[in-house]
Amino acid sequence: MPEGPELHLSSLFINDSVKGLIFSGEIHKSDVSKNPTIKWDVPFYTITAESRGKEMKLWLEEYTPKEGTQAMPPQKISILFRFGMSGCFKLSSVDEIPKHSHLRFFTAKNNADTIQVLNFVDFRRFGKWEVNVDWGSDRGPCPITDYENFRHNIVNNLENPAFKNKAICEVLLNQKYFNGIGNYLRAEILFRSKIAPFDDAYNVLCDWKHAAFYPIKTENGAAPSNQDPLYLCHAICSEVLKLSGGYDVETGLKENGSFEKWLQCYQNPHMKSLTDRNKRTIWFDGEPGPLVPNDSNIRRPKTKRRIVENVVEKSVTGVKARKRNVVTESTELQASSRIPTRRSPRFAHVLELKGEQTL
DNA sequence: CGTCCACGTCTAC
DNA sequence: TAGACCTGGACGG
């Protein structure tokens, strides 16, 4: 779930779904969570949210029913969340607290209305929260909400060692500059910009150093070229935000399949994949580029051969089948490409489409 | 049953 | 630059 767009959608979801709700009572933490207990003892409070890259802040503000009667300004605290690999927010009833809910905010009892619960759900528990802290100091501006500063922070710091002699696919995961970009976004960004994942990051980014913030329209009004990777960091996030069809994190996006259909490269069995220096899988098309680590893709050599044979066997006929064959052979020579060993259920639709094409 | 893999950090040698 | 931190789904035997 959670890269920049999901964090942003979560904040939109909370601001929308919790708008007008009054919360009350203590904030409940699961027994198993190692994150801090939140001491917050006011009769009533409201919740708002904001996101920045791969972080999200909740603001809790004391609610006083009658305006102007409070002697003191309302109390306020913030909770900074990082979602890890599986964190998300879900609204539920008291009777249907989701499994793996680790932090719960309860609405006040209110005659007619049933109590609702805002849950931080995180089945792998890599997610973290901290109370009353600022955004992570080692994280850059948000490509979604602060694109211009995001871009400045990169082009003004290109001489930093973070960009020197590094593969662009690895630099794209450096949250000091690419806060919010994760493994699926880097694949989609590089795929659309037609940049080889293991090209030198400094060289690549220097090419776009003086480009316009937004692609410039051609004179005849034709669509501008959108291959600027920095612009794509913003634009591709925006596409994901639009997919949900509103802020409905529950039924939108990942659960209705629109996200899977939107992905062009990530975990697509027709693409190539390699592991980067941090053993993270990068999905790509075409040439890998010069900075492929020596040990990339030697993780499961035993199964690889068998998988390659399976793939060729199943590729029946047609251009794609031949193309595929070439791909596997050339990467075998390099001893550095991984053929997806399983197809993700997420890509069932791709395979279906392919079936239609080859029939 | 077992192994591998997953939208991400962290920190310890 | 490994591992650690976690749960669970897909797949293999």
UniProtKB/TrEMBL annotation:
<dbReference type="GO" id="GO:0003906">
    <property type="term" value="F:DNA-(apurinic or apyrimidinic site) endonuclease activity"/>
</dbReference>
<feature type="domain" description="Formamidopyrimidine-DNA glycosylase catalytic">
    <location>
        <begin position="2"/>
        <end position="127"/>
    </location>
</feature>
<dbReference type="GO" id="GO:0003676">
    <property type="term" value="F:nucleic acid binding"/>
</dbReference>
<dbReference type="Pfam" id="PF09292">
    <property type="entry name" value="Neil1-DNA_bind"/>
</dbReference>
<dbReference type="InterPro" id="IPR035937">
    <property type="entry name" value="FPG_N"/>
</dbReference>
<dbReference type="InterPro" id="IPR015371">
    <property type="entry name" value="Endonuclease-VIII_DNA-bd"/>
</dbReference>
<dbReference type="Pfam" id="PF01149">
    <property type="entry name" value="Fapy_DNA_glyco"/>
</dbReference>
<dbReference type="GO" id="GO:0019104">
    <property type="term" value="F:DNA N-glycosylase activity"/>
</dbReference>
<protein>
    <recommendedName>
        <fullName>Formamidopyrimidine-DNA glycosylase catalytic domain-containing protein</fullName>
    </recommendedName>
</protein>
<dbReference type="GO" id="GO:0006284">
    <property type="term" value="P:base-excision repair"/>
</dbReference>
<dbReference type="InterPro" id="IPR012319">
    <property type="entry name" value="FPG_cat"/>
</dbReference>
<dbReference type="InterPro" id="IPR010979">
    <property type="entry name" value="Ribosomal_uS13-like_H2TH"/>
</dbReference>
<dbReference type="GO" id="GO:0005634">
    <property type="term" value="C:nucleus"/>
</dbReference>
<dbReference type="GO" id="GO:0008270">
    <property type="term" value="F:zinc ion binding"/>
</dbReference>
